[in-house]
Specification:
Blueprint lengths: L1 E5 L8 E9 L5 E3 L5 E3 L5 E10 L7 H10 L1 H14 L3 H15 L3
Antiparallel strand pairs: 1-2, 2-5, 3-4
This protein binds zinc ion.
């Protein structure tokens, strides 16, 4: 899975093709089978797996890629949700979309 984002370097208007990684996290567990209270799940996460191509030729450190994923998380989440839709994986897709809407403050 890959998508394009803008180069994060100051003053650079290059484009990067990145490979997107992500996890749908885990759902909240409200109750354990014995009736005890459960535990909260982990939210979905997205990250940049690698830069496949940079039109400007820049190279990036791991820290820069983390910052890029934080800045562009919405594009990455969108991309993963689309990829999951194509794979007809509704469960993951729903989790990514719900998370994205929550981050945007829609719900
Ligand atoms: Zn650049």
């Amino acid at each position: 899975m890959s998508c394009w984002v803008g180069c994060p370097r100051e003053g650079c208007d290059g484009d990067l093709r990145i490979r997107v990684g992500g996890t749908p996290g885990t759902p909240n567990v409200w109750y354990l089978p014995n009736g005890d209270p459960g535990y909260p799940g982990d939210p979905p996460e997205v990250w940049v797996e690698e830069v496949l191509e940079a039109s400007c030729g820049h190279e990036f450190s791991d820290a820069e890629l983390e910052a890029l994923a934080d800045d562009e998380w919405e594009i990455l989440a969108e991309h993963l949700a689309d990829a999951l839709e194509a794979a007809e994986d509704r469960y993951w897709e729903d989790r990514f979309e719900a998370w994205r809407d929550q981050q945007r403050g829609i719900v």
